[in-house]
Amino acid sequence: MKKKQQIADPSKDIPLGLKLKKDWSKYKSLYLLFVPILIYYIVFQYGSMFGLIIAFENYKPRLGFFKSPFVGLTHFKNFINDYYFKRTLMNTIRISVTNLIFSFPCPIILAIFISELRSKTYSKAVQTITYIPHFVSIVVVTSIVMDLTARNGAITQFLAKFGFEPVTMLNETKYFLPIYIISGIWQNIGWNSIVYLAALLSIDAQLYEAARIDGAGKLRQLWSITLPSLLPTIIIMLILQVGKMFNVGYEKIILMYNPMTYEVADVINSYVYREGLLNLNYSYAAAVGMFNSIVSFILVWTTNKISNKLTGSGLW
After folding, report:
1. Which secondary structure element, helix H or strand E, spans residue 84, and what is its range?
2. Which of 26, 131, 177, 261 fits a disulfide with 265 by CB distance 3.0 to 4.6 angstroms?
3. Residue 193 burial by Cβ neighbours in a 10 Å radius (0-12, 13-18, 19+)
4. pLDDT tens digits, 250-262
């Protein structure tokens, strides 16, 4: 049999410089729109990485980056041997894993429910109502939560009718995690469902029609069409969520916790905040933050590798 002739790609013979010149002339406006974003990432994301050098120094502001004494891995060793290492690490893992288990499926379920609504008006109303909390400042959200869970707050008084003791709930270690998780779901469920709604809209309607003809009910359609179609999106979002596990929402934790709940609420990032900004221990805080980032990178890389092996899809 004759081998098929491969059609040569004429674009391969064009020099790279000429390709870029043509692309620039064609998409000049898009490149110009991209410039501010590029500058932002260079200055605030990559440029600031130079400051990680202080994690290996006994940094003194008056001496600067280059004259501060070099101490190597001393700060990393000190953190691992620190009294607070086990507490902050275990709290970070516990809060992150619990948040992942309870919060991650909620936007998926909400997106499926919204897609099943027949009334467009009702569907838009539900979306708007669930999106609004995302745009409320975390400071305002925390203040609302504190008021509702105070000794005389609405939630505390409601629970008191069912036999619970009326206490300031955020001063109790047993209530901190449930309050953190539930308030987080309320604030982000609508916004996080957008990506799943977009994925649902891309599913071919003929698949559902064929399934109905074959006698498949709603649950069967959900299991055989909806979830498999959402799987690539779910995997990508899961990988991103796992990567953020050790960067658990410390801003909210810092606003919510107090010395009475440090035992269950203190995480690595809140510890970095206290050491770096309150105690002015810059080098030690930088080392702890770098440790956190390295663990987060390992989690993303591992999750992506497992995903590629099991499902064939991932971030890269």
Report:
1. helix 83-103
2. 261
3. buried
4. 788 888 888 888 8
Long-range contacts of 276-282 (CB under 8 A, 24+ apart): 282/54, 282/59, 282/61
Number of DSSP helices (H) and strands (E) in the chain, helices first: 18, 0
- Measured distance CA(2)–CA(312) in Å, rounded: 34
Contact between residue 273 and residue 254 where contact means Cβ atoms under 8 Å apart:
yes
Which residues are registered as beta bridge partners of 57?
70
| Cα–Cα distance, 162 to 159 (Å, whole number) | 5
- Which amino acid, 201? L
Q: Is the pLDDT reported for residue 233 higher than 90? A: no
Strand, coil or helix: 155: helix
8-24 pLDDT tens trace: 455 556 677 787 788 88
- Is-contact 156 150, C-beta < 8 A? yes
Mean pLDDT along residues 55-74: 86
How far is Cα 92 from Cα 291, in angstroms, rounded to an integer? 13
pLDDT > 80? residue 1: no
- Mind listing the pLDDT tens digit for each residue in 187-209? 999 999 999 998 888 888 888 88
Residue with tokens 């409601």: 158
Q: In whole angstroms, what is the distance from residue 308 CA to residue 159 CA?
A: 46
Percent share of the chain, pLDDT over 90: 13
